[in-house]
């Protein structure tokens, strides 16, 4: 890396403190030190003032090198992982090195080959940067914090380039997706607003089942699924969409599942955090997945609404809450895997191992060997732990984790980077696994291909590749792998 002057180093150490970053950069043009002329091509313009954006500060280190600071979660400076920003006013063939300098985590999949995502105006499909252009190391210039540096070559002057930690999945995209499903008027798909966030965004609840299961007095076997309680864990939304897409399809397995089960899905528990570009917290700085024990109706309204519904179902003698699955993404591990609970009852403990074992058979990216069962004190306020203690022995509660980066397919050691489609495929395989769990295979053969039914009004439920720099090296700083 370019050498910094002592003055620059002192300024960086002083201004680099987390509380010095209060918001996102807004069309911020970086001009060379001492430059007084008109802005021109190559004077980069950084922006993160858009939905799910995050970039708090930019320091130019040299002609081609920039230090970038993640904006901490709102009202909580502890969490700095998610970034999502644009760069424009580039010059063709302009080469840069971007250093993300203030990660709050030390362990990272960047050590294992993960790379940031990039797309541009003329190439709107997200792709990963080549791992050979990405370095993750402890940096003495930034109080020995871990830094992720990547080299990039801008190749089209008129393009706006966007970089992100992982594939973004915004609140607006989610709303458009649900709107499109609602317009299909399927009689087995119901959408309702369970509540609102602090900033008045919708907490959507989906019910997917045969409408006969919702008639008054009908007994229900319920599978309850939640996602995006941690807003920066965007793979959660792709997995959840995969589950939904499969369950509403005309696939014979999906139709059998709708006949026998009631799926309740709250796909986005933290819509404010998602919108704001936070990594882990809500607008008010709360990690919602530590507040299940006693959620506040004003500070944690989405969590409060979901918990009240689950307790209501638990107290309904006609309802059997069979599964609770909370979907997350993991920043240091490969593959998909699950966390389950530990019980004194050996039979219950063994029974809850069945679903992840079956999922491992159905999904090449799911690892049963990485699945673990625990009752760590630090996890006491999570949905899995709280509901595992509340619900009776017939219920199974899990956290489903999926890697931000990749999976290792059986029989190989090569990491296969996840794509949006691969995340959704895991979701489809999660849904299919309920067929095996309930031994409903014989019912599939009896299913004839039906004509889609319209909903009754009387029933309601509760690219082209980038020219990437290959010869830029980042060997001026000591690397710590």
Q: Can you walk me through this structure?
A:
- The chain contains eleven helices and 21 strands.
- Strand 3 and strand 4 form a beta hairpin.
- Helix 4 packs across helix 10.
- The protein is elongated and about 75 Å long.
- 43% of the residues are buried.
Mean pLDDT: 89
In terms of DSSP E residues, the strand content is 15-25%
| Helical residue percent band | 10-25%
Number of helices: 11
The main β sheet shows up as: 8 strands, mixed
Structural class: alpha+beta
Which overall shape is indicated by the principal axes computed on the Cα atoms? elongated
Unreliable segments (pLDDT under 50, ≥5 consecutive)?
A: 1-19, 469-481
Radius of gyration: 24 Å
Cα separation of the termini: 17 Å
User: Could you tell me the number of beta strands?
Assistant: 21
Strand adjacency order, main sheet: 12-13-15-14-16-19-17-18
Short description:
This protein has 481 residues and is an alpha+beta fold. The chain has 11 helices and 21 strands.
Protein traits:
11 helices; 481 residues; eight-stranded mixed β-sheet
Task: Walk me through the topology.
Blueprint: H1 6-15, E1 28-29, E2 45-47, E3 57-60, E4 65-69, E5 84-88, E6 94-100, E7 117-120, E8 123-128, E9 134-139, E10 145-154, E11 161-164, H2 171-183, E12 189-196, E13 202-208, E14 220-227, H3 235-247, H4 252-260, E15 262-266, H5 271-276, H6 301-314, E16 319-330, E17 336-341, H7 346-351, H8 354-362, E18 372-374, H9 383-390, E19 396-403, E20 406-408, E21 415-417, H10 420-437, H11 441-446
Parallel strand pairs: 4-6, 14-15, 14-16, 16-19, 17-18
Antiparallel strand pairs: 1-2, 2-5, 3-4, 5-11, 6-10, 7-8, 7-11, 9-10, 12-13, 13-15, 17-19, 20-21
């Amino acid at each position: 890396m370019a050498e910094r002057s002592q003055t620059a180093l002192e300024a960086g150490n002083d201004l680099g403190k987390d509380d010095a970053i209060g918001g996102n950069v807004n069309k911020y043009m970086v001009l060379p030190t001492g430059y007084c002329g008109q802005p021109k091509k190559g004077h980069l313009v950084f922006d993160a003032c858009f939905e799910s954006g995050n970039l708090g500060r930019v320091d130019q280190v040299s002609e081609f090198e920039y230090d970038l600071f993640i904006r901490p979660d709102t009202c909580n400076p502890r969490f700095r992982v998610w970034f999502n920003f644009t760069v424009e006013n580039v010059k063709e063939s302009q080469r840069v090195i971007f250093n993300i300098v203030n990660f709050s985590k030390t362990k990272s999949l960047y050590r294992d080959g993960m790379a940031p995502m990039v797309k541009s105006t003329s190439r709107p499909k997200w792709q990963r940067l080549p791992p050979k252009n990405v370095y993750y190391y402890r940096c003495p210039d930034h109080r020995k914090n871990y830094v992720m540096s990547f080299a990039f070559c801008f190749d089209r002057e008129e393009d706006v380039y966007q970089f992100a930690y992982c594939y973004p999945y915004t609140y607006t995209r989610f709303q458009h997706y649900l709107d499109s499903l609602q317009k299909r008027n399927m009689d087995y798909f119901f959408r309702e607003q369970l509540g609102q966030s602090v900033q008045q965004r919708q907490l959507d609840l989906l019910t997917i089942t045969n409408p006969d299961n919702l008639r008054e007095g009908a007994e229900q076997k319920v599978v309850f699924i939640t996602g995006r309680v941690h807003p920066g864990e965007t793979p959660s939304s792709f997995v959840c969409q995969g589950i939904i897409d499969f369950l509403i399809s005309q696939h014979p397995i999906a139709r059998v599942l709708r006949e026998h089960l009631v799926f309740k899905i709250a796909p986005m528990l933290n819509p404010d955090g998602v919108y704001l570009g936070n990594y882990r917290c809500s607008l008010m700085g709360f990690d919602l997945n530590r507040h299940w024990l006693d959620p506040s109706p004003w500070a944690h309204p989405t969590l409060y609404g979901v918990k009240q519904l689950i307790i209501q179902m638990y107290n309904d003698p006609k309802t059997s809450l069979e599964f609770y699955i909370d979907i997350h993404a993991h920043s240091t591990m490969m593959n998909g895997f699950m966390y389950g609970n530990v019980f004194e009852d050996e039979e219950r403990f063994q029974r809850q191992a069945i679903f992840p074992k079956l999922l491992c058979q159905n999904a090449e990216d799911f690892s049963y060997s990485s699945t673990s069962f625990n009752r760590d004190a630090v996890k006491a306020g999570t949905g899995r732990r709280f509901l595992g203690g509340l619900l009776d022995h017939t219920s199974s509660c899990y956290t489903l984790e999926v890697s931000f980066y990749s999976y290792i397919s059986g029989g190989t050691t090569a990491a296969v980077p996840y794509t949006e489609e691969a995340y959704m495929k895991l979701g489809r395989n999660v849904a299919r696994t309920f067929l095996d769990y309930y031994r409903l295979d014989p019912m599939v053969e009896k299913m004839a291909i039906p004509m889609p039914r319209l909903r009754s009004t009387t029933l309601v439920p509760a690219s082209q590749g980038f020219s990437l720099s290959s010869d830029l090296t980042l060997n001026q700083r000591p690397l710590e792998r």
